């Protein structure tokens, strides 16, 4: 019975070779997203650099309109302690993968805020990097203060 099951698994993977790669890529994407979140929690500019493409840009609304922050600016904000520094929880409720491009919905929750992010990633040189993040901030009204 084990031989039949193993043979069927091999035939399935041979018929759909991209499925095994998709699982590996999804795990790598989730690791990149985790590094991104953790870089903010720890104010770790080096870890942010591992997650973000050199030309990555993050967009979010301010009182003056849309603000764009590139990777270097983000790392400087982390280093100066102007952002981050609190432990947050995150989940990836949606992840779409097409060849070397991925789109993820990343929800990060702190005691006071919810960050709803739409993240675009690209695979370059075998590594998944974040190329853009569009962030919507809202108060965490469910949190206990």
Automatic annotation (TrEMBL):
Alphabetical keyword list: Signal
Pfam families: Lumazine_bd_2 (PF12893)
First and last residue of the signal peptide: 1-20
Record's keyword annotation contains Ribonucleoprotein: no
Keyword Cell wall biogenesis/degradation: no
Name of this protein: Nuclear transport factor 2 family protein
Species, as recorded: Sulfidibacter corallicola
């Amino acid at each position: 019975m084990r031989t039949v099951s193993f043979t069927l698994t091999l035939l399935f993977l041979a018929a759909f070779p991209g499925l095994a790669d998709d699982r590996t890529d999804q795990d790598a994407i989730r690791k990149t997203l985790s590094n991104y979140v953790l870089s903010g929690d720890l104010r770790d500019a080096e870890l942010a650099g591992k997650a973000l493409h050199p030309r990555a840009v993050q967009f979010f609304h301010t009182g003056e309109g849309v603000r764009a922050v590139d990777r270097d600016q983000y790392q400087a904000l982390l280093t100066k302690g102007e952002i981050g520094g609190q432990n947050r929880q995150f989940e990836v409720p949606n992840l779409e993968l097409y060849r070397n491009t991925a789109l993820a919905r990343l929800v990060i929750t702190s005691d006071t805020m919810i960050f709803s992010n739409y993240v675009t990633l690209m695979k370059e040189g075998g590594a998944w990097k974040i190329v853009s993040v569009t962030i919507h901030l809202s108060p965490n009204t469910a949190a206990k203060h």
